[in-house]
Structure formats: C-alpha cells, structure tokens
C-alpha cells in the first residue's frame, strides 16, 4: 500500500512528471479504475481524518496546592473583569489589597490576565499574588514571565536578567538582608559600573551598620557613580565612619552658643578649604550637583558636609534647639548653603523635628530642598495638616506649581483625613481640566470611601472629565463596598 | 450578547443605576429611561422572554448599549430595579410583539389557501429558478474540474508560486455560478499555501475534498438521499424542507459558541448537546455588517426545547423550535465523554459526511498539558489532543485546571481542538470571548 506521503509528493510534482502511486486495496475497489490523484487524495485524507490516533504522553501538570481561601462572589468577579478590561483599572491596587484583607481570592480564570497586567504594573505585583491565592503561585511556576509571583525563584539570581536579579535582591533584602549583601559581594568584581550601582541601591532596604564595612570599602571603587551611591547610603547611617569623619569636619567649621536669658544664640560658620584626598574619597566635590554657580564652590562643600551630619548631633553636643539654631543661621553670609545642608541632613537622617522647624523657618533652601521633600518625613497628621494648608491656600488652582502638591497628595499612602478630602473635593471642578485622567484617578483613590457619596454630587455634570471622574468614584465605591460586604462572616 | 466589544464597553458604562432616570421591571419585561445626548431621555425596553430589545435611541447597533446596560443592571444590582406596572410605551410594545408572534404562529398553523392559479405559478417560477441554478452550478463545476486538472498536472509546487488572486479568482467564479460552498473551500487555500511546514498536506487534503464533492455531485442520483443532501449543502444549496423533519425534544445544554468572520459575514456557531439523547446539535446564525446575531442561545444554559435537524448523513445542523419553561444552567450535570468516545463519534460523523468541517467535542476528566512546546488536551488515559494554534490564550484554561482534571468543551476539526468552554468545580465558564 502506498502512503499518504507518496501522494503528497506526486501532487507537488504534478501528474505530468510523477506517476500516480497505487491506491490501497480497500479504496481502489471503491473508486474503480478511473480514479485520479485528487479523488485518491480526498479519499485517503478522509480515511486519515477518521482514523486519527492521538499521541500519548505521561506528562501531567503537578497539581496546585488546595486553596485555603473562599472565592469572591460573582459581582466582585465582574468588577475585576471590568478593571482587567481597562475600565477603572486605577482602583486595582486598593481593590486587590482589600481582597487579601477580607481573606478571599479571585476566580481562577482571571488570574492569568491579572498576572499579565502585574508584569507591566509593578505596583500590582505583591497584591496580585496575595489575591491570587495558591493558584497564582502555581501558575507562576509554569510561566517564566510571571516569576515575580513565584515564591520559588531562587535561580533568578544565577540566571536572571539584570532586572530580575535586582528584583531578587529587593525581595531578599526584606527577609534576610545579609544574604542579599553577600550575594552582591560574591560577583562584585565581575559586574559593570551600572550594574554595581543598581545593586548597591537595593541595600537601601533594611540598611544597617552591618552593611557599613562593605560600603566603606566601595568608597575606593573606580567608578564615581558607584562611589556616589555608596556615599548616599553611608550618609544615612549615623554610626558610619563616613558620617563620623563629616562630623569632625563640621565641628571645625561650626561654632554655636545657645542663647541665655538675655543673650540670643550665636552661630559662626567658616567655609571649608578645598578637599584633601581623604575629603575627595568621602565625595566632597566643589562642583557637586552643579550647585556651585548659585552657592559658590566652598559653600557647596559646606552644604555637603552639613548634609552628612545627623542634626541630632547639634542638639547633643552644642545644646542647640532647632528653632534657635535656624534663627541664628538666617543671618549668616552662607545662609543658603546652611539651609540646603541642614535640609538634606534632615531628610537623610529622618529628623522630623528639624524638618518641621525648617518648614517654619525663614532660612532659605532655594530650589534644592523643596518643602515637599521635608514634608515627607513628618508624621502622617502633620503631613495632612500641611497639605490642607496648601490646598486651602489655593495651590491646587495655580497650574504651574500644583504638580508638586498633587504628587504629595497622591503619595499620601492612606485615605486623606476628612477635612483634607473635603477641601480637595471642593476644588476638583476647578482644577479637573488641567490634569490627565491617570492623575485624577490617583487623587480619586485617596478620597475616603465614606465621603464618595458627598463627592459625586459636588462634581460638575457639564464637564466630560468631571462626569468621568464621578463614574470612577462611583465604581470604586461599589467595588470596595462589595468586598467589605463579603468580609462579614 | 453585545454586537461588538465597543458596545460591550459602552453597555458596562451604562450598567450604573445613576445613569438612568428610571429603571423598573415586571415579570415579562425590563425598561428604563436614560438621558442621552438628545433632549428627551431614551426609552429602552427588554422583553425578558427573548431576550428582545427595543430602544428609542438612534444607534444602529443591536442590541444598543442602553439595552445591554439595562440587562447588566438587572444582573449586577437587581436591587436597583424596582418592580412596577409597565408604562404605556412598554405595554404597547409587548402587546405588539405578542400580536406579531401570534400572527406568525397563525400563519404557520393555517396557511391561507391561496388561489390555486397563483400557487401553481409560484411553484412553476420556483422550479424554473431551481433548474436555472442547477445548470449554472453544473457549468461552473465542469470548469472547476478542468482548472483542478491543470493545477494537478503542473503540480502543487508550481501552484505555490501563484498569488492569492489565483485562488480567489476561482472562488469568485464559484460564487458567480452559485456554488458558494466550494468558494469557501477555495478561499482557504491562499492561507494554507503559506502555512509553513506540511502546507502541501493541507492543500492536497482540501483539493481532495473538492474532488470528492465533484464526484459526489456527478453521481448524486445514485447516492442515498441524506448524503445527496450533504453534497448539495457542501456545494452551497441552502437546506430546505426543515418542516417535514421531526423535532427532537430534550433538555438541551448550550455548551459553546463561537463567532467567526467570513468575508462580509459574521457566522455564529452555537453548539448544543441533548441531556438525555446525548446528541450534538449545531445552530448557525449569520449577520452582515452591523446586523445582530441571534442572542437567544446563551452558553451555559439548559433549554427544555424541540430541536429540528436538517437532513444529513451525519445530522448536526439544527434549529431550536419550541422552548418550554425557564432555562436551567450547566453545572455538574454537563454532558461529556471520554476522549476515545469523542474521537469515535467524530470519525463516524466525518465518514458519513466528508465535508463536515468540525465536530463538537465534550471531553471529561482532561487537563491542559504542554508537550513539545505545544499545548494539548490530555485525558486520564494519557491520550493527547493538540490545541488549535489559532486559539489565543490557553492560560485561563490552565489556571482553572490547577492540574486537576475537568470537563472541557470545544470544536474538533480532525486535526486540532479549539476550546470554547469548560466546567470546573461545578461552574460553567465560557472562554476567550471578550464579548459578554
């Protein structure tokens, strides 16, 4: 009997050139003598189609671990489907977090679409994994694109791309910081400067004095960029040798006497000399950040030195109260350099009392240390107060400067306190047309859920953007409320 | 149910009670008023028995976004829909619909005896048209046979060099001579020719099918009547004489639905399986342009209904006639077979009607596995069914399986399996379709 392949070959060549292969007996009886190539092909193709035999395989999928959490109800599943389709997807981070909090999980069939989205939107990753239950972890083990969701991604350090390795370090820093540092050191000499820099930056998470000896050794690195990254980190460790050296330098430059009953506090500041080799090693550079034009080269050095001195040092050694110290600094010739240095030091060492004093003081900080930077280290209530004052002062309405304020507003990690939320809601109609939909969605995410019924009627029916925003708030309210309902036993 | 993804999205947007001035229902219908861009609010109504839609908006899509939105509210927030007596504009429409339905039924029941002379003339005209078409088809098929002969003499290797127009030209000719079924096969050829490894296999198989069709047509008088019907349907005659076919009563599970674009036409295939007779049925719906497809068969439902099958050696294509009572839902009761049984059923059907393109496969206790870089369906015995390369996203299936066997439903072409829906943990899930 001739095979199907012989017919295909004959067909490729054409009957002018190829001889017609003989038909299998069973078929030739059916077709008779006038059968042609095509009819034979048709008959055999049909024969093959009907007699199709499946291949076999012993491969199966390793079953996923059983779920411990109940699945969401249908309404919530429909909400998720809508968000995955690109409607109101700004609600996703909050919604997914709420899913994990009420101890539920999303339906299996929607997990792949969510993981696909989380691959692009980093901020969704950890919440997506939590809301996806065991199944998300299991899926991630099957599809390398989703290994961010997998708890078993050990080998991403050995074989992963640069980003995967950085992600691995970031994860490891949270749980076992020393292990991540040892990993970085193990390949340190082989990596390029940009990779070394990215790796060093991951140490910011759980940074401690245990990292100091390594960082101190990096000050001798051949790349300026890498050294800068190390200095940034060391400058936030009050016990580090770098900070101790900076304190020594600063002590020579700053003379301060606290005020007595009848006399005011006095401050005397001398500018440093150009740095010696030890100073250069510590990153002192009169041209750092290109500030020298506004400040003067030596003033830049002063600011740099001050920025690496924990402000609490002045309180301890010179009995300086932040307000008095700043008041005294206002009149100094190099007031701007002192303001910048102290501002950066407050941020480096998270000195909230100094940050607050700086915000209240007249001491200049130029464009180098904006208010927003200092506000970030204040306690939550203080941040809210400051934001409220800004909003009430009409900063949102000033188009050119509102960007920073909006960033601070959206950085606020919890829903706004009611007074702040109400103040923003009142002004939404006026500022709405300046902003991108995404920005508005971020603002809308910070309005506390229970104020949404107040916010919606406050929005204009005339402007398209306002109507859209009302729809967004409505959806957010419905979707989160539906989850809260399921939290009740 | 939406005519296109844009409508689905717009419908979602309107699935918000706040967008509606009023929305209410009674047992029979659902209605609401929605402020659109016009002066007066649009009046939207849905006959829930259909479902059928009516709306005063100017949209040419059907159902329009208002109708969809209203139904979505009913499904998602039934509390927002109050039960009320229908206003006159709803009442009128429902009465009109019932009247039309009755009229239709009455017309079917007692076809008014027309003037015998007119009847005879109509019959004569019909016959004349039929004879004329028969002649044109015959003429066209003779031409096709010659063309195929030339093609095969020179060889497929040479045919591969021809541009798509070579095949499309002949397809157009087949349309002209009223053999659209043959044209459909020919239109597939340019794609198959460039389909890579094994293209000659696939091309020859299709050409073989055409040749069998020609052969069948030549010998149609000697064929059993049902196979003769299949030959004619495959060539492009519309099957007639459905009324004389007995209807099959059963609880029919609507197991899957797929819409494909064919030229200017959207073709919707809806697959049914009888709960008791375990027999598959295929309901087709065609729509050109923005025309609506049939929305009365919703995947996941179980209908108590009479289904009439078109005459065929492997009866599959059917029409749902009478429906009784409320629809149920598919769950643990899903009808499914072992892989061996499915292949056996399909082989029998393909053998009886060689021009059958696909067969419904409801496979129980199977799971997706990746073998040699391609996804397959694997049953408990280890047999593999390759999944269609054209099938988009296999991950929702994998996710639902979780490595546990479940029931998967899809279309089997004899080469590959195209998944359509699945039942997992007693829940019916429709796949792929982004249109709600």
Task: Chart the SSEs and their pairings.
The complex is a heterodimer of chains A (about 500) and B (about 425).
Chain A: H1 4-13, H2 25-31, H3 37-50, E1 55-56, H4 74-84, H5 92-101, H6 111-120, H7 125-131, H8 133-140, H9 156-159, H10 162-175, H11 177-187, H12 193-201, H13 212-218, H14 224-234, H15 241-253, E2 254-257, E3 266-269, H16 277-281, H17 292-295, H18 297-307, H19 312-318, H20 322-330, H21 335-348, H22 352-360, H23 371-375, H24 380-392, H25 402-411, H26 418-431, H27 437-446, H28 452-458, H29 464-487
Antiparallel strand pairs in A: 2-3
Chain B: H1 5-14, E1 20-25, E2 29-34, E3 42-47, E4 52-55, H2 65-76, E5 82-83, H3 88-109, H4 116-154, H5 156-159, H6 164-176, H7 180-193, H8 199-218, H9 225-235, E6 247-262, E7 265-274, E8 280-288, E9 301-309, E10 318-329, H10 339-352, E11 359-371, E12 374-379, E13 383-386, H11 395-401, E14 406-412, E15 417-424, E16 427-430
Parallel strand pairs in B: 1-5
Antiparallel strand pairs in B: 1-2, 2-3, 3-4, 6-7, 6-9, 7-8, 9-10, 11-12, 11-14, 12-13, 14-15, 15-16
Helix pairs in contact in B: 1-2, 4-6, 6-7, 7-8
């Amino acid at each position: 009997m001739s095979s199907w392949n012989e017919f295909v070959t004959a067909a490729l060549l054409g009957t002018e050139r190829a001889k017609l292969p003989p038909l299998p007996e069973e078929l030739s009886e059916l077709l008779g003598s006038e059968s042609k190539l095509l009819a034979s092909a048709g008959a055999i193709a049909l024969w093959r189609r009907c007699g199709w035999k499946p291949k076999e395989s012993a491969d199966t999928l390793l079953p996923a671990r059983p779920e411990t959490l109940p699945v969401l109800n249908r309404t919530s599943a429909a909400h998720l489907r809508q968000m995955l389709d690109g409607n109101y997807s700004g609600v996703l981070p909050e919604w997914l977090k709420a899913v994990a909090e009420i101890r539920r999980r999303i339906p299996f069939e929607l997990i792949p679409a969510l993981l696909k989205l989380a691959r692009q939107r980093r901020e969704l990753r950890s919440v997506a994994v939590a809301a996806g239950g065991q199944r998300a972890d299991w899926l991630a083990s099957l599809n390398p694109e989703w290994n961010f969701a997998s708890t078993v991604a050990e080998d991403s350090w050995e074989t992963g791309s640069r980003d995967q390795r950085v992600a691995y370090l970031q994860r490891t820093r949270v749980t076992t910081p020393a292990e991540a540092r040892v990993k970085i050191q193990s390949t340190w000499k082989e990596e390029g400067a940009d990779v070394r820099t990215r790796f060093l930056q991951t140490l910011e998470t759980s940074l401690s004095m245990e990292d100091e000896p390594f960082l101190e050794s990096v000050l001798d690195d051949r790349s300026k960029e890498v050294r800068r990254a190390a200095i940034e980190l060391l400058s936030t460790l009050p016990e580090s040798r770098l900070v101790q050296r900076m304190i020594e330098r600063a002590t020579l430059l700053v003379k301060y006497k606290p005020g007595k009953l009848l006399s005011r506090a006095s401050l005397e500041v001398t500018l440093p000399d150009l740095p010696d080799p030890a100073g250069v090693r510590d990153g002192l550079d009169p041209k750092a950040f290109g500030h020298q034009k506004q400040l003067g080269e030596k003033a830049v050095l002063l600011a740099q030195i001050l920025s690496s001195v924990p402000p609490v040092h002045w309180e301890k050694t010179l009995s300086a109260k932040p307000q008095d110290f700043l008041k005294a600094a206002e009149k100094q010739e190099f007031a701007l350099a002192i303001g910048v240095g102290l501002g950066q030091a407050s941020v480096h060492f998270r000195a909230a009392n100094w940050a607050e004093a700086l915000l209240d003081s007249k001491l200049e900080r130029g464009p180098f240390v904006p208010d927003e930077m200092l506000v970030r280290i204040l306690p939550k209530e203080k941040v809210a107060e400051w934001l409220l004052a800004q909003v009430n002062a009409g900063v949102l309405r000033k188009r050119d400067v509102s960007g920073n304020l909006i960033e601070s507003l959206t950085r606020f990690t919890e829903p706004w306190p009611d007074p702040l939320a109400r103040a923003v809601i009142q002004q939404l109609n006026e500022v709405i047309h300046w902003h991108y939909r995404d920005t508005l969605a971020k603002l809308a995410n910070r309005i506390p859920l229970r104020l949404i019924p107040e916010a919606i009627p406050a929005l204009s029916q005339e402007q398209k953007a306002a109507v859209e925003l009302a729809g967004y708030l409505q959806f957010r309210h419905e979707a989160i409320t539906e989850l809260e309902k399921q939290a009740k036993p | 149910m939406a005519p296109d993804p844009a409508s689905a999205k717009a419908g979602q947007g309107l699935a918000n009670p706040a967008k509606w001035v009023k929305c209410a229902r009674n047992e029979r219908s659902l209605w609401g008023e929605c402020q659109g861009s016009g002066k007066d609010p649009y009046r939207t109504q849905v006959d829930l028995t259909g479902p059928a839609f009516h709306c005063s908006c100017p949209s040419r899509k059907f159902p329009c976004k208002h109708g969809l939105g209203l139904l979505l509210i009913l499904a998602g927030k039934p509390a927002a829909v109050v039960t009320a007596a229908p206003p006159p504009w709803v009442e009128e429409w429902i009465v009109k619909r019932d009247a039309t339905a009755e009229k239709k039924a009455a017309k079917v029941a007692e076809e008014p005896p027309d003037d015998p002379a007119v009847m005879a003339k109509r019959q004569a005209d019909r016959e004349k048209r039929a004879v004329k078409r028969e002649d044109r088809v015959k003429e066209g098929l003779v031409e096709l046979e010659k063309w195929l002969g030339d093609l095969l003499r020179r060889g497929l290797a040479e045919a591969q060099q021809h541009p798509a127009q070579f095949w499309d030209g002949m397809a157009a000719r087949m349309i002209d001579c009223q053999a659209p079924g043959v044209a459909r096969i020919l239109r597939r050829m340019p794609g198959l020719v460039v389909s890579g490894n094994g293209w000659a296999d696939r091309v020859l198989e299709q050409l073989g099918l055409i040749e069998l069709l020609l052969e069948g047509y030549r010998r149609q008088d000697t064929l059993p009547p049902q196979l003769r019907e299949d030959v004619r349907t495959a060539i492009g005659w519309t099957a007639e004489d459905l009324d004389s076919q007995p209807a099959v009563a059963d609880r029919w599970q609507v197991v899957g639905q797929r819409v494909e674009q064919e030229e200017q036409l959207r073709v919707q295939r809806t697959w049914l399986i009888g709960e008791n007779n375990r027999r598959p049925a295929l309901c087709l719906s065609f729509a050109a342009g923005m025309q609506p497809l049939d929305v009365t068969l919703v995947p996941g439902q179980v209908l108590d209904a009479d289904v009439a099958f078109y005459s065929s050696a492997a009866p599959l294509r059917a029409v749902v006639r009478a429906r009784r009572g409320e629809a149920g839902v598919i769950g643990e009761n899903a009808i499914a077979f072992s892989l061996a049984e499915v292949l056996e059923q399909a082989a029998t059907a393909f053998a009886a009607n060689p021009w059958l393109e696909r067969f419904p496969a409801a496979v129980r206790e199977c799971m997706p596995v990746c073998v040699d870089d391609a996804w397959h369906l694997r049953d408990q015995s280890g047999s593999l069914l390759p999944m269609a390369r054209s099938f988009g996203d296999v991950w929702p299936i994998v996710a639902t399986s979780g490595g546990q066997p479940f029931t998967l439903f899809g279309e089997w072409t004899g080469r590959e399996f195209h998944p359509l829906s699945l039942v997992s943990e007693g829940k019916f899930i429709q796949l792929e379709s982004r249109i709600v």
